[in-house]
């Protein structure tokens, strides 16, 4: 394990050298980097190799054999099962001082802890444990943004705690935004790494439309062809963007396209009914097209898929709760059709953006959390999360306790980042060989 880590550290140094930052490299240096990179690619599993019954490829490799090296794209890390992990969790609410009350279930008296001691095990490969030092080295000199609603912010909070094992950031939010609750900027000085979150629950422009003012279920207007400037005007220079949206599309909504009212969802009056799935599709289409159209955007975009809620014995506003204390199987509770429809809709739009991105050099990746998190009704705060804006009589079966199963999302994120880095390096080496 230590040897693999040394090789990994060296590989990412090679990646930095081969990124064209030193345009004066002579030909012998390039040949050396190509050869060294190939050796490293072939000798580092990084979770991309099959399980232990498959032998590692020989590190004795030359440039001409590059074409025979295939990264393990056939393995789907999102297909598997939850297994006990008694060594978990990575952190506690005592070792990470960054957990906000909304996610701090243990602080507010949750009596069980088993929900923190499970890991996702893919069927055909290995999902490595999160390595904070490795993550920070990968993002050295870079920036990352979470764009979406409070569940996206929940993932960012998880990442902060995972990284706290190595470093704490400086909060520079007040230097860049007047609203530091919804628009956060955190800076890791030792790594020159910026982490940001942009509040945009619909991804597109929105405004309150209810004459009685804003509430949990008030009417809102969405402008489906206009990206929300709160993130669109800020995102161009970010290296990694994790984009998501979900629960806000359940509320009453008016839909506009090109400035004209084109339909509504859960509204009264003589307005054409438009399904929330159609609006959801158009919102993601606009978001992805915006990223594709930004002249200076060169980042990698991750779609973190729809995260379902787990209210049982009533809806969120009718006494529903989520009191389970362990994972379930897919046979115990089937993923509801409307949740799957949201998931399929956004993935279809991602695939379209992915194809368009190939012509412009932009990468779009799927961070698929929908089905795996459906199996974790035990991971929500329920009555053990406290938010200053939350009605105390409403249980929280949408967000996730920290620590908890949401930490797996960042294991996936690091896995995808490493795989993407290797794929880019392989393409560069093939081009230069």
UniProtKB/TrEMBL annotation:
Compartments, record wording: Membrane
- According to its UniProt record, where is this protein mainly located? membrane
Which sequence ranges are marked TM in the entry? 31-49
What is the recorded membrane topology of this protein? Answer: Single-pass membrane protein
**Residue ranges the record marks as coiled coil:** none
Respond yes or no to whether keyword Transcription is given for this record. no
Could you give one GO CC term from the UniProt record?
membrane
According to the UniProt entry, where is the signal peptide?
A: none
Pfam families from the entry? PC-Esterase, PMR5N
> Which InterPro entries does its entry note?
TBL, TBL_C, TBL_N
Q: Which family does it belong to?
A: Belongs to the PC-esterase family. TBL subfamily.
Give the species this sequence originates from.
Durio zibethinus
Looking at the record, the residues that make up the Trichome birefringence-like N-terminal domain are: 74-125
Q: Sorted alphabetically, which keywords does the UniProt record give?
A: Membrane, Signal-anchor, Transmembrane, Transmembrane helix
> Could you identify this protein by its name?
Protein trichome birefringence-like 19 isoform X1
């Amino acid at each position: 394990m230590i040897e693999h880590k040394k090789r990994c550290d060296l590989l990412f140094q090679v990646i930095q050298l081969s990124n064209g930052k030193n345009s004066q490299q002579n030909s012998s240096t390039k040949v050396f980097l190509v050869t060294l990179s190939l050796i490293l690619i072939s000798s580092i599993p990084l979770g991309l190799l099959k399980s232990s019954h498959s032998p590692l490829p020989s590190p004795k490799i030359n440039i001409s054999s590059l074409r025979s090296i295939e990264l393990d794209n056939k393995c789907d890390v999102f297909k598997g099962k939850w297994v006990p992990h008694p060594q978990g969790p990575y952190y506690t609410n005592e070792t990470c001082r960054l957990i906000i009350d909304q996610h701090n279930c243990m602080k507010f008296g949750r009596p069980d802890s088993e929900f923190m001691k499970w890991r996702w095990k893919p069927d055909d490969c290995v999902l490595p444990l999160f390595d904070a030092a490795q993550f920070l080295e990968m993002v050295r000199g870079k920036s990352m943004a979470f764009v979406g609603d409070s569940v996206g912010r929940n993932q960012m909070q998880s990442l902060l705690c995972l990284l706290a094992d190595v470093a704490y950031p400086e909060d520079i939010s007040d230097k860049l935004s007047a609203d530091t609750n919804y628009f956060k900027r955190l800076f890791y000085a030792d790594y020159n790494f910026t982490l940001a979150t942009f509040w945009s629950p619909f991804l597109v422009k929105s405004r309150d439309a209810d004459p009685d003012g804003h509430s949990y279920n008030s009417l809102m207007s969405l402008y489906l062809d206009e990206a929300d400037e709160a993130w669109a005007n800020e995102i161009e220079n970010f290296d990694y963007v994790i984009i998501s949206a979900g629960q806000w599309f359940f509320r009453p909504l008016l839909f506009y396209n090109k400035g004209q009212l084109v339909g509504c969802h859960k509204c009264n009056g003589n307005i054409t009914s438009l399904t929330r799935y159609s609006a959801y599709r158009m919102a993601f289409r606009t978001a992805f097209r915006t990223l594709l159209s930004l002249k200076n955007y060169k980042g990698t975009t991750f779609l973190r898929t729809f995260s379902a809620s787990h209210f049982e014995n009533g809806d969120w506003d009718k006494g529903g709760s989520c009191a389970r204390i362990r994972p379930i199987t897919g046979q115990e509770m089937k993923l509801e059709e409307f949740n799957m429809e949201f998931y399929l809709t956004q993935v279809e739009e991602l695939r379209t953006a992915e194809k368009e991105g190939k012509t412009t050099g932009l990468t779009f990746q799927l961070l698929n959390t929908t089905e795996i998190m459906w199996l974790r009704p035990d991971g929500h705060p329920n009555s053990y999360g406290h938010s200053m804006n939350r009605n105390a009589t409403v249980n929280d079966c949408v967000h996730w306790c920290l620590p908890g199963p949401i930490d797996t999302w960042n294991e996936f994120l690091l896995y995808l980042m490493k795989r993407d880095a290797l794929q880019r390096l392989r393409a560069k080496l093939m081009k230069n060989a």
